[in-house]
Design goal:
Order of helices and strands: HHEHEHEHHHHHEEH
Distance between the termini: 69 Å
Structural class: alpha/beta
Number of helices: 10
Largest sheet: 5 strands, mixed
Number of strands: 5
Oligomer: single chain
Length: about 230
């Protein structure tokens, strides 16, 4: 089989895949209109989601599906390896809008098992493009965890889970220090949570990220903007 024929077959498969999702959308729309006839008219009037979800771009982690909720219930920002940085303007824009304008009640940071970004950060192979710079915060966490002995006696899968959890905990800490989140937490009780999604079982697991009263007061003291 010639290379031209192979490329043509690949193109046809991809085109068929695109048409398949269009057909699936029509079917989903029709079924949703039957089971939830008020959903789309309500969504057309605006959104008031209770959740802001900060997750990974991985195709296996669709927040609306894995949480079993309808469109309009989760405001979303996703990137490679769910890295939360105070210098990411796209993320900061989402946080500002979600917290101040939509007034979400909960911020959920979600990491997941089998994360390619985490696997890359555990290794030293060059990926290329902007990825090496993007994963730098994860590699810094890897170095700190290794120095602490957190990887001792663990296989690669276990090391990955340690880094996944550490990345979520770091993100929760950064979020709790965000001025908009600090203000909303004080004024209306906004909560920040950390969870891990197991792509092998479909289950969410909440991390223990509770903070004490003294920690909350220190955070208000140092990060509240007046």
């Amino acid at each position: 089989m010639s290379s031209e024929v192979v490329h043509e077959l690949i193109f046809l498969r991809r085109t068929d895949a695109f048409h398949k999702i269009l057909a699936s959308n029509k079917k989903w729309c029709q079924e949703t209109c039957k089971t939830h006839p008020d959903l789309f008219p309500t969504l057309a009037k605006g959104q008031s989601p209770p959740f802001l979800w900060l997750g990974c771009s991985d195709s296996r982690c669709p927040e609306t599906s894995l949480c079993g909720v309808q469109p309009g219930e989760i405001f979303v920002h996703r990137n490679i390896a769910n890295i939360v940085s105070p210098h990411d303007m796209s993320l900061q824009s989402v946080i500002f809008y979600g917290v101040n304008h939509l007034e979400v009640s909960h911020v959920v940071v979600c990491g997941h098992t089998s994360c390619g970004g985490v696997a890359a950060a555990l290794g030293n192979s060059k990926i290329g493009g902007t990825m090496d710079s993007w994963l730098h915060p994860l590699r810094e966490q890897r170095a700190a965890l290794q120095a602490q002995g957190a990887f001792d006696g663990k296989d690669e899968k276990e090391k990955a889970l340690v880094l996944v959890e550490a990345n979520v905990r770091k993100a929760v800490d950064i979020m709790r220090k965000n001025p908009e989140v600090v203000k909303a937490a004080e004024e209306r009780g906004l909560k920040v949570h950390g969870v891990i999604y197991d792509v092998g079982t479909g289950e969410l697991r909440e991390l223990d990220t509770e903070e004490g009263e003294n920690d909350m007061q220190k955070r208000m003291q140092h990060f509240k903007v007046k």
